[in-house]
Amino acid sequence: MDPDCAICHAPASLACECEAKGLEIAIEQAENLMMQHMYSDIRQWVRAHAQDYILEYFSLLTDRRKAAHATHIERLTAHAYHYYHAPPHPNEIATAQATLKRGIDEDWQNSVQRYPELLEYFYSLVQLTLPRDDEPAVKDPPLSALSGSRKISRRGTSTATIAGEPFHERERNPLARRTPPPPILDRRTPGPVANPLAPPPSQRRHSTYRPPTAPPTGYFQY
């Protein structure tokens, strides 16, 4: 004998969708409660490392372009003094500076266009580890009716990892970041706006993370 619907109390023979819809809503609510902090931590980690890499890549391109510009100015100066015994004409200097500015703009555009592949790469380093089906915490949940009602811990046993040490240890040790930002460049892309309804940092739950190694040299070609 099948029980009636637990929500609308309709007979089981009607096969209503109340319980299925209610379960989906409950899953979504539980996921938002238990996983949202993990998603936020992963997003913040991916964003930071992608930005660091973009700035380093842009710095490399601009250093090369500035070196070429300096060499060009030296040639102009040497040519002007050799033939005219005077400094280069201001128009030549202005043209060289305008070429340098256009080149730097192109370097930044090319750098920013690499965000999609970089974000995919760093997201690919994230690994979600689920407990085994035969673990006691899975076979006998704290709220199981078979073992009596016990208070359930809101910290699960599944963890998100990023190929390294725990996330909270890395946060306490900022020197552990493998991809340091360039010292003279500011991050051009602003960070996400803080959620005013989010709990204070002291009340947030932290899962176990591991920082990544630097992207493999063969993954990105300069």
Q: Largest sheet, if any?
A: 2 strands, antiparallel
What is the percentage of strand-forming residues? under 5%
Low-confidence stretches: 149-155, 165-187, 201-222
In which order are the strands of the major sheet placed?
Answer: 1-2
- Structural class, judged by helices and strands? mainly alpha
Termini gap: 68 Å
> Would you tell me the overall average pLDDT?
76
- Strand segment tally: 2
Helix amount:
40-55%
Q: What is the N-to-C order of secondary-structure elements (H for helix, E for strand)? A: HHHEHEH
Count of helical stretches: 5
CA-based shape: rod-shaped
* Rg over alpha carbons: 29 Å
Describe the overall structure:
With 222 residues, the chain is an all-alpha fold. Helix content is 49%, strand content 3%. It has helices spanning 18-83, 90-112, 115-124, 136-139, 167-172; strands at residues 127-129, 159-161. Helix 1 (18-83) packs across helix 3. The longest helix is centred in the first third of the chain and has 66 residues, at 18-83. The protein is rod-shaped. Residues 149-155, 165-187 and 201-222 have low confidence and may be disordered.
